[in-house]
């Protein structure tokens, strides 16, 4: 599969992750609350299950973090003032999507590698 097709697939997946239902009940709601205020968090499983990893600053290389490098399936931008750009490549390359502040996604069936992130559109 070509790099552009992979990036497109990742883009579709993260967009789906960011747009999947905003109303949560039960376990999903409680687990997303594990993401500290001011952070962008991702979980290895859908519905905020499995291992969680989080970032608070711009990161040019997230490959050292298991959940980001091996595919994230649910996420939450709990940032205070900013949206977060997520990238399929290191050093802010191959933009996947901009995840708006406050956006939650319970997951998709397609894994999404996030290898860098940058906080943007800060107010």
TrEMBL record:
Q: Which residues form the signal peptide?
A: 1-30
Q: Please name the Pfam families in this protein's record.
A: Inhibitor_I36
Q: Does the keyword Signal apply?
A: yes
Q: Which domain of life is it from?
A: Bacteria
Print the keywords alphabetically.
Answer: Signal
Report what the protein is called: Peptidase inhibitor family I36 protein
């Amino acid at each position: 599969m070509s790099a552009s097709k992979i990036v497109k697939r990742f883009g579709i997946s993260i967009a789906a992750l960011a747009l999947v239902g905003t109303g949560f009940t039960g376990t999903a709601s409680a687990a997303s609350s594990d993401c500290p205020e001011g952070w962008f968090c991702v979980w290895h499983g859908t519905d905020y299950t499995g291992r969680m990893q989080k970032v608070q600053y711009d990161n040019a290389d997230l490959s050292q973090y298991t959940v980001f490098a091996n595919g994230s399936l649910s996420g939450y931008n709990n940032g205070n003032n900013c949206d977060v750009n997520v990238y399929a490549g290191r050093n802010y390359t191959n933009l996947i999507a901009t995840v708006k502040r406050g956006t939650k996604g319970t997951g998709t069936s397609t894994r999404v590698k996030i290898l860098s992130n940058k906080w943007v559109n800060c107010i």
